[in-house]
Write a structure and sequence with these properties.
six-stranded antiparallel beta sheet, 10 helices, about 35% helix, alpha+beta
């Protein structure tokens, strides 16, 4: 029996082994981080009164700005200290997810969902390995792990879930693509159910795209996966003006996914018809 996720704890009220499984992805249920919505009830009640997605996004951005003092100016004559900001970390992630910003975000996914990292600048085999120790040092980086940054990402996740339930696809899932180098780095094949149908294990946090023609930027084997709302932390245009949607990038929680290998040319042609 594969016990990779069995000993990991989380804050979502269901076993990590189930949340990380293909079974959850096929039949997902709503997920909440313990206490986050309750502690921020006025925010979600205020968003309920808004009719448009832009108004909802603006309320959320203002709440984050005030709650975490994201743009507070230092007293005159004093140097401004760096305050960790979820949007800045996401920008850093998009530039290179193997930098300290990426380690902090992978650490958040590990802490909240029990999803251990498979890779951060190097393959991570277990929690006692030098690679895990190096990752741990980066996720505790003083420049990026301050200002209650995990709490910021907790709120972003709950906001993302709220937003998708109100404005997202009715299917509750996205058809996404990722180019993978299946060599034991950020994805591993753990089962082959056919020549072109695999079960892949993803890093604790990983990027996908809705544009198949951009997927090969991540690797040579293009995989198509259905990702439920509950596995999505951030997607294009979730926060207009704050996080760019130009790259069509979805930041997705890891675990085991059923993925099919696709031919980029055939998918592109079918879209143009």
């Amino acid at each position: 029996m594969d016990r990779f996720y069995y000993e990991h704890t989380n804050l979502i009220g269901i076993p990590t082994s189930y949340f990380a499984s293909p079974a959850f992805n096929l039949s997902p249920s709503p997920i909440h981080l313990n206490g986050v919505m309750e502690m921020n009830a006025p925010l979600f009640k205020a968003m309920d009164t808004m009719e448009t997605s832009d108004d909802v996004a603006n309320i959320f951005i203002e709440h984050m700005r005030v709650m975490f003092e994201l743009d507070v100016k230092p007293p005159e004559g004093k140097r401004k200290s760096f305050r960790a900001n979820f949007a800045r970390l996401i920008k850093g992630w998009r530039f290179d997810s193997n930098r300290p910003e990426g380690a902090v975000m992978k650490g958040w996914a590990e802490s909240r969902f029990g999803l251990p990292p498979l890779y951060h600048a190097q393959k991570i085999t277990n929690v006692n390995s030098p690679a895990y120790m190096a990752y741990t040092a980066e996720k505790m980086h003083a420049r990026f792990n301050n200002n209650a940054i995990y709490s910021q990402f907790d709120l972003l996740y709950e906001y993302c879930q709220y937003y998708q339930r109100r404005f997202g696809p009715r299917t509750g899932k996205y058809k996404l693509f990722r180019g993978a180098n299946i060599s034991g780095d950020e994805q591993e094949i753990i089962e082959k159910r056919g020549k072109l149908l695999w079960v892949t294990r993803n890093n604790s946090l990983v990027s996908y795209t809705s544009d198949v023609e951009r997927a090969d930027e991540f690797g040579g084997t293009i995989l198509q996966t259905e990702v439920p709302f509950e596995k999505v932390l951030c997607f294009p245009n979730l926060l207009p003006g704050l996080i760019s949607g130009d790259e069509k990038e979805y930041i997705v929680l890891g675990g085991d996914y059923i993925s099919s290998v696709v031919n980029v040319l055939s998918v592109s042609k079918s879209r143009k018809k």
